[in-house]
Amino acid sequence: MNRPASDLRAAAGTIRAWLTEADRVLVTAGAGLSAAAGYDYGDEDRFRVLFPALHRAGLRSRYMVGVPLPPALLWGYWAVHIDDIRFSAAPNPLYRRLRALVGDKDHWVMTSNVDGLFARSGFAPDRIFTPQGDYGRYQCATPCTPTTWDSRPLVARLLAAYDPATGAVTDPDALPRCPNCGGEAEINVRIGPRFVDTPYLPAARRLQSWLGTAPAGTRLLILEFGAGFNTPGVIRWPGEDLTRRFPRARLVRVNPTHPGTPAELADRALPVPADAHRLLDALAAPHPAPNPTVAP
Q1: In 54-64, which positions are buried (b, 16+ CB within 10 angstroms) versus exposed (e)?
Q2: pLDDT tier at 287, thresholds 50, 70, 90
Q3: pTM to 2 decimal places
Q4: Domain holding 247: CATH number?
């Protein structure tokens, strides 16, 4: 692994030059980007505020809600969690800064995040691939059909029957059922093998076409934010593979704890040991005119 860049200002200068030279930009992101934007699943203080009953029961973060819960508690959690992280209409300032950074470059987004923050913050929805799903959809738990449904009305119904004191949905009739077969339902995110990926396949094909039709010699810049080792096969490793596949591609890996890049990518990969806020601040700081480098 390459050693992380120690000078954030120097890294910002390199990124500016690489952006200037890039023909296309692929923005990739994991949970670390949304955490930097204020949606940290490991935040115990926020968890205590939103889920006091679950906190009293010994849970300390959203990451811990993988334990089995009774349906009334589970759907109470999902309703509050999804309402908090998915259905705000306001754009997120950090994501807006990232959108401004990309500017008018020909670009795509691929993210493991299921919170819709890219689309809500100015990125074109038809150029965002979310292979892990979307909190904005729900599905049959069996599943009996590849159809998925808008979760906004479901969340509203659950919240209307939610008791913050107990953390439970008090009306059994508010609990979701599959609209097709009447069986159990679940949020349309990749939790297990029953995940319905049908809504995301068209974007996957469009992204594959965008990459596959790139002219020979395309200078592809991959800007990766907050993708660690929880699910490295979704964002982290594909970005490395794409950098190998395109001889003139470059990879910027922005990650405060796991910024390392493969040694064989040499000077075509830049590890940045910082979160997105710090990097974007460095990019916004006054700087001397860059000396563009020539892609190998």
Answers
A1: bbeeebebbee
A2: low
A3: 0.92
A4: 3.40.50.1220
